[in-house]
Specification:
Elements lengths: L1 E6 L10 H14 L3 E7 L2 H4 L10 E6 L2 H14 L2 E5 L5 H11 L3 E6 L2 H9 L17 E4 L6 H9 L4 E3 L20 E6 L7 H14 L5 E4 L13 E4 L7 H6 L1 E6 L3 H6 L5 H8 L4 E3 L16 E2 L3 H7 L4 H18 L2 H21 L6
Parallel strand pairs: 1-2, 1-4, 2-3, 4-5, 5-6, 6-7, 8-9, 8-11, 9-10, 11-12, 12-13
Helix pairs in contact: 1-13, 3-4, 5-6, 7-11, 10-12
Length: 366
């Protein structure tokens, strides 16, 4: 099977969650024998932080403008079995028009930012990666979030015909138990790009705890943190942490914190990749609470929930043995259900299920 993808980025993991996800998916799709072509607009902020130059067992097409690449893109789509457009792809509308006009490949929109998309649509704000016809022209819409409301919202508001969840995941070739490193040592670590909507929860769960317990060491890694972030002397900062360093980062603290984007937490059933990455590395997990989390991890048995700094400090009083027992259970759950190879197989199955619908829709033939 040949799969063509028009995405935000796969070449740079800086300041976005798309690249790591696509690297895991594409690698395991290739291992299943499928051919991948990934189209990415070559923009300066990703070019300056590029940590992947080529797509192993696939093809990465970097381009400066849509006009430059559209003939090549059309040729690849005509040869493809499936063509995917993602949220936040800067050329998503043009790519959608190309894919749906060809009536060849199974056409898929993959929303990796489901909660943000639906929140903007409901507020009447423009969504630059969705055209005037909504999602009605796609054979299949994949959603990063599940839960009872998402499918209905995509159908009712955006005209999607078929909606299925394809959740976050972890590449266990990269995220696995590793040796701790002294530069990442801490009692509690947090890995995530700065986000204003995550800031209140991050302050409540980590910053306030750090201010209360100056004898403990806290660590934050990520991009785009502002100068006025409320640092304290016991909060240490790593400006950019490439995926190759994630395992060591997680392994070097007693516990790792996950904070979910506000829109994702409000929608529910939208686990962040950090949950699965930290769990796969064997790190004990503390997370904010949201609807549906028990579908992914068992609170109190595989993961700990926190609502304020008191919960964080209480979790830090657990013994190493208690934390490690919980971490082992979370890792076992992740390896059985939430790995990139399993998501790749799910994607292939969803494409195969969509093919008969694509063959009959609008009288088109694939």
């Amino acid at each position: 099977m040949k799969i063509v993808i028009f995405g935000l980025t796969i070449s740079s993991s800086w300041g976005n969650g798309h690249a790591t996800l696509w690297r895991g998916l594409c690698k395991h799709l290739a291992r299943l024998g499928h051919t991948i072509v990934f189209f990415e607009r070559d923009v300066p902020y990703y070019a300056d932080t590029r940590d992947l130059a080529e797509l192993p067992s696939g093809r990465l097409e970097l381009f400066a403008s849509w006009d430059e690449i559209s003939p090549s893109a059309r040729r690849h789509v005509r040869e493809a079995d499936a063509a995917i457009v993602t949220s936040y792809c800067p050329d998503a509308v043009a790519a959608t028009d190309l894919i749906c006009s060809e009536h060849r490949a199974v056409s898929i929109f993959y929303d990796l930012d489901t909660s943000v998309t639906l929140a903007r649509v409901k507020a009447g704000d423009p969504v630059p990666y969705i055209g005037s016809r909504g999602l009605s022209d796609f054979d299949l819409v994949l959603s990063f979030a599940g839960g009872p409301r998402v499918q209905d919202d995509f159908r009712r508001i955006l005209g999607a015909r078929e909606v299925r969840p394809l959740y976050n995941h972890v590449d266990t070739d990269i995220h696995r138990p590793a040796a701790s490193q002294p530069q990442y040592r801490g009692d509690l670590s947090y890995l995530g790009t700065y986000s204003r909507d995550r800031q209140p929860a991050l302050e409540a769960l980590l910053v306030d705890a750090a201010h209360t317990r100056q004898d403990l060491r806290f660590l934050i890694a990520g991009a785009q943190y502002p100068d006025d972030f409320p640092w304290s002397s016991n909060i240490y900062f790593v400006r950019h942490l490439p995926p190759s360093e994630h395992a060591s980062f997680f392994a070097s603290s007693r516990m790792t914190l996950n904070v979910t984007r506000k829109a994702m937490a409000e929608a529910g059933w939208c686990p962040s990749g950090r949950l699965f990455e930290a769990a796969a590395c064997g790190s004990p997990l503390l997370t904010d609470d949201w609807s549906g989390i028990s579908d992914f991890f068992a609170p109190g048995d595989e993961i700990m929930l926190a609502h304020d700094a008191g919960d964080t400090l209480s979790a830090l009083t657990l013994t190493d043995a208690e934390l490690q027992r919980m971490a082992r259970r979370a890792r076992a759950r992740t390896l059985s259900q939430h790995t990139s190879d399993k998501r790749a197989s799910e994607l292939v199955s969803l494409i195969e299920q969509a093919r008969p619908r694509a063959l009959t829709s609008d009288g088109a033939t694939a």
